[in-house]
């Protein structure tokens, strides 16, 4: 049959251009990735053979072989795993469909070359072969089928597929090693790479340094061929853990936390879990899937068992191996498997226990973890009633007290004597939160306010309204009363307070005038007890929806129209005092109406809300500037 010609998907072409034209120090990772793919192929066939033993009938035990042919200049990585069909070759080697791959490519194209080492995280580790090869050929035959296929490419943007012959199922990946990369034809060099990166692989890995004959008796074993999670901790080095993390997680960073345990009791299982030190690209992908692999008696079952770990712990990487689940369990059965639900609950508690230990013994390290993964873990406060309170206790927040993070126990311990609530403000980012005029009165009285900037913050507050009997209270709600809290550098005497602001009659007249000018655009206008420097701000009524929560829901079309807000005015601000004088002298006139509209637009801009009529705002601003010049 004549070879068929195909073009790579655009993303593959971009990736190939990067790996073949840039100079990276970690070129040796190509072997790690090819061995990892071969291991996955063996695992998948072992799982399929549970239901259909004929797939492996008469076959040799699973193994991975690395063969060097110095004369031909080729390096071959072979396995007797599941193999691929023609369509699977096109799907797996011609396209990239893994979530987060676009962001990954954009980062590489931005010059962050060190991140090439996480290539396996996106299911595209195969293409790292082009870092060292002028041409790559894949000879493969799917288990249970008679036809083999040959895939070939020089990495320039196209590939060919033709039918071929192969004895038995599995795949051979043949690399025509580039002249400048001949070091990878040295068996000693290859042996060191395998020992460094792939010693944990559960299948025997051998190196054959001969020519085309490749006799079995010339194969040299190079790995321990034992599932790392089944070995005693005393036999495992930090390097072993690190490389296994790279294998299951696809990253190249250091694991921040390693959890290795053998659990016995109602359910027996082993787990080896890692928390990365860097944020994976797909952490905030809409599918919210965890990346923990499920094994049963060392047989790989699936990496899509949604019931194994909660989505709010999707930063976890690793393996859970059950002794009690049936080997022939299907993904559909997993959804209703009580043993799996029990394991999930125990895994969550164990992870939280380890995080609590870290928070207690390594505050600085835990703060870094929280900055990286806190926004995800906080989803559990809202979603998991059983452990939500534990997660809330673990949570760390930015606040007006400084640049660092604070826990709720620490916040409560330094509350003002008269302070009855835990105050917070939600915003899009820290800078917007810190600039909010609603904070001015709290700062003046030395009252600490939590700065909440993650979208989930608006939701967990609805199910956790208090902590240790201290209610949470938004500073953007009308009920945030500061009158009971004394202290602060700007606290004034009653006499000074009267001198700094208009009289009650003037102030009441001004408020009535602003109400008249704004009409239905606001719910109410009233004197503010929280403003110190700004002339106005907007707040939600005590029983209305918080400002940012309403914006979030409106963006997702969960609410039809925005609620009317209360405008608070600062009677000590020079502008407000001048307006009070003007209304005393001439009553409500066009100038007051224009000023009221400007103040409302200003308050909306500060809140990040769109103003109703930008052109009218611009005209009013220009008119006021002319009058003032």
Note the total helix count. 21
CATH architecture of the largest domain: 2-Layer Sandwich
Largest sheet: 9 strands, mixed
Shape: elongated
Indicate the percent of residues in helices: 25-40%
Instruction: Give the overall pLDDT as a whole number.
Output: 85
- By DSSP, the count of extended strands is 23
Question: Could you list some keywords that capture this structure?
Answer:
629 residues; alpha+beta; Heat Shock Protein 90; Ribosomal Protein S5, domain 2; Rossmann fold; 21 helices
Summarize the structure.
The chain has 629 residues and is α+β, with helices and mostly antiparallel strands.
Describe the structure.
The structure is a single chain. By secondary structure, this protein is an alpha+beta fold. The protein folds into four domains: 222 residues, Heat Shock Protein 90; 136 residues, Ribosomal Protein S5, domain 2, CATH 3.30.230.80; 95 residues, 3-Layer(aba) Sandwich (Rossmann fold), CATH 3.40.50.11260; 135 residues, Four Helix Bundle (Hemerythrin (Met), subunit A). It is 37% helix and 19% strand. It contains 21 helices and 23 strands. Strand 10 and strand 11 form a beta hairpin. Helix 1 runs parallel beside helix 4, helix 8 runs antiparallel to helix 9 and helix 17 crosses helix 19. The protein starts with a strand and ends with a helix. The mean pLDDT is 85. Belongs to the heat shock protein 90 family.
